[in-house]
Design a protein that fits this description.
Layout lengths: L2 H12 L4 E10 L9 E5 L4 E3 L4 H17 L4 E6 L15 E9 L7 H4 L5 E5 L3 H12 L3 E6 L14 E4 L16 E5 L4 H11 L6 E4 L3 H13 L4 H5 L1 E2 L11 H16 L6
Parallel strand pairs: 6-7, 6-9, 7-8, 9-10, 10-11
Antiparallel strand pairs: 1-2, 1-5, 2-3, 4-5
Helix pairs in contact: 4-8
Length: about 270
């Protein structure tokens, strides 16, 4: 599920608002959206997302309203998207689509949170003062957290009792035991420039929702020049959030942690600028 839809779903669950989710679970032939497309209807009747537009969207919206009224837990609707069959939706696509419509109770969302991965994972590289301040903040705003360092004294359960921790031989092996995906948030706050460079070099090879790196513009310019020499493109570099965090003139580790969390919230809600 896209970050913006996940944000709306999470917000409704936290505010005890029931809703309905419609998800394309199977397709055949030509269809406007493929398997995995999602649309959500809140208790106010407002829709977020799409299952394809046109008549399939309109009919699915009607099914969502019915499911909300009847509190139908789950029902799959089969749609023919052609102009020939009597029971088709009179659409020119020509394919077929199965759309699952499910009523979600905020008091008992069942497997919804897990299935739709509403909790993204933040990978914090470096276990120093900034990480120590940032990690609990990220947990409180619904991120899973993983702290990675090349020093066992800094990546351990005593220091981060509620986070996963990974000790790597060096930051050149940053992602050896990590499988980042499109919902992964990568935070680079190691103790030195070379550690930042080693992590960033590997981070750029990973699918992700966000890469943020601590440091001044001048320092990061030097790292970018090094990566450019190695073949990293300008397009890749422009996607990095650095200097990391919202510009709130933060100075202490705690203030920097808040600024980073604020920037990650902005990205998660679909308002990133990269």
């Amino acid at each position: 599920m896209a970050d913006k839809l996940a944000y709306h779903a999470r917000d409704m669950i936290e505010n005890k608002r029931d809703f309905v989710v419609a998800k394309v679970v199977d397709t055949a032939g030509s269809t406007p959206r493929k398997k995995g497309a999602v649309m959500i209807m809140g208790d106010d009747g407002v829709f977020f997302g799409t299952v394809g537009g046109g008549k399939i969207e309109a009919v699915t919206q009607d099914k969502c309203r019915e499911a909300f009224e009847k509190k139908t837990k789950s029902e799959v609707h089969h749609f023919k998207l052609n102009t020939k069959d009597r029971d088709a939706l009179d659409m020119g696509c020509g394919g077929e689509a199965d759309v699952q419509v499910e009523y979600i109770s905020a008091d008992d969302p069942g497997d919804f949170m897990r299935e739709f991965n509403l909790t993204s994972t933040a990978y914090i590289f470096g276990g120093g003062h900034v990480a120590l301040a940032l990690e609990p903040v990220l947990r409180h705003i619904d991120f899973n957290t993983v702290v990675i360092d090349d020093r066992a004294d800094y990546a351990n359960k005593e220091r981060f009792p509620d986070s996963d921790v990974i000790v790597v031989p060096s930051f050149k092996d940053s992602f050896k035991d990590i499988r980042c995906d499109e919902d992964g948030y990568i935070v680079i706050v190691t103790r030195g420039h070379m550690g930042d460079l080693d992590v960033l070099r590997e981070a750029l090879k990973q699918p992700n929702a966000y890469i943020g790196m601590i440091g001044s513009r001048n320092k990061n310019k030097l790292l970018y020049e090094k990566l450019t020499e190695e073949g990293v493109t300008e397009e890749q570099l422009t996607k990095i959030y650095s200097p990391i965090g919202e510009n709130i003139f933060a100075e202490t580790p705690e203030e920097i942690g808040i600024s980073i969390a604020a920037e990650m919230i902005r990205v998660r809600t679909g308002h990133g600028t990269k």
